[in-house]
Amino acid sequence: MPQGKLLYIRVRRNKSIVFLCYAAHDTIQNIKQKLCIAQPGCNKSPDQIRLYIRRSDQYSLLNDSDTVSSAGLESESDIYFVYQDEDGKWEEVHTEAYEPLDEGGPDELEEDAEMHADIPHTRKEKGKGRA
């Protein structure tokens, strides 16, 4: 992989997904700093965030001093983050599955188009009707 090439990862928590660009030589600590910057309302410091990667059926904690490449992250990887609460306890890793916006496949889209084919479509021309 070229040294200067930027890659991205998806960082997930609950229903949130943050896309972050990184370089292979970035440390996990750098990723946590980028995550704090990418979330304007975040009042947590990088020390109050833990990053995990899912391997098999379990989550593995990523060490702050590891580089992204030594941690085994690749472009388009999913990693997960949790916060430390006021009592010093860490949240459990939790993400929610997304439901697709359209449940139907291409056949259903064609049926919708056929059903609405008799509805006249009008187009407004730009600039018409302006004084």
From TrEMBL:
Q: Which domain of life is it from?
A: Eukaryota
Q: Where is this region: Disordered?
A: 99-131
What the entry lists under InterPro entries is as follows: Ubiquitin-like_dom (IPR000626), Ubiquitin-like_domsf (IPR029071)
* Bias (Acidic residues) ranges: 99-113
Which stretches make up the Ubiquitin-like domain? 7-88
Query: What name appears for this protein in its UniProt entry?
Result: Ubiquitin-like domain-containing protein
